[in-house]
Design brief:
Layout lengths: L2 H9 L2 H20 L5 H23 L5 H25 L1 H4 L3 H22 L8 H17 L5 H25 L9 H10 L1
Helix pairs in contact: 2-3, 2-4, 3-4, 4-7, 6-8, 7-8
């Protein structure tokens, strides 16, 4: 088997399949949200949300982590969370409207971190920092909770957490340049540098 074929086979694994499912399934959330029966969108959202948790966990457990997998996971996240926000806007506009300013600031911070990583590192890097992971968990529970209670304040907290995560990412790229997508925080970089 050629070297190219071997590398291609290494990309085909369960964690990457889960990320691919989230990537392909995220736009379907928008279609399911338009159905009268909300059980479909809830079910799809829970399944896709679980893939976000499972892909990284399985990649580490099965020792199948790769740069390709990290990029695929980041791309799937970049599609899943905005699609989730659009589903929230479609189904629960009253929870989202009071938070538009905060959401706009979060998207501006996202644009900033993407631009800085592209300019400073010659590629786009989405960090899986502790703050962004916590915000992702909050998105999941905010949307799920919206089917049962008012989640206006939780949505505001999510927007603020993402804003902080994107600002932290911008500072990391400005200070340290290209880093691993799995960098946990600006403080973990400092500890790693200080210990070497």
């Amino acid at each position: 088997m050629s070297r190219y074929g071997s590398q291609r086979l290494q990309r085909i694994n369960l964690p990457n399949a889960l990320s691919s499912l989230r990537l392909a399934g995220s736009p379907a959330l928008l279609l399911l949200a338009s159905l009268d029966d909300r059980r479909w969108v809830i079910s799809a959202f829970v399944i896709l949300g679980l893939t976000d948790w499972l892909d990284g966990l399985l990649a580490r457990y099965l020792k199948q982590t790769s740069e390709f997998g990290a990029k695929l996971d980041g791309l799937a996240d970049l599609l899943f969370y905005p699609c989730s926000a659009l589903v929230l806007a479609q189904l629960f506009p009253a929870y989202l409207l009071p938070n538009l300013t905060f959401i706009g600031i979060a998207f501006a911070a996202l644009a900033m971190v993407l631009l800085v990583s592209r300019l400073r590192c010659a590629r786009v890097i989405l960090l899986h920092s502790a703050l962004s992971r916590f915000a992702g968990v909050m998105v999941f529970f905010s949307l799920l909770g919206a089917f049962f209670v008012d989640t206006t304040l939780a949505i505001r907290a999510v927007a603020l957490l993402y804003t902080l995560a994107f600002i932290e990412g911008t500072l990391i790229f400005l200070r340290h340049g290209a880093v691993s997508a799995d960098t946990r925080s600006i403080f973990s970089i400092r500890r790693l540098r200080d210990s070497t």
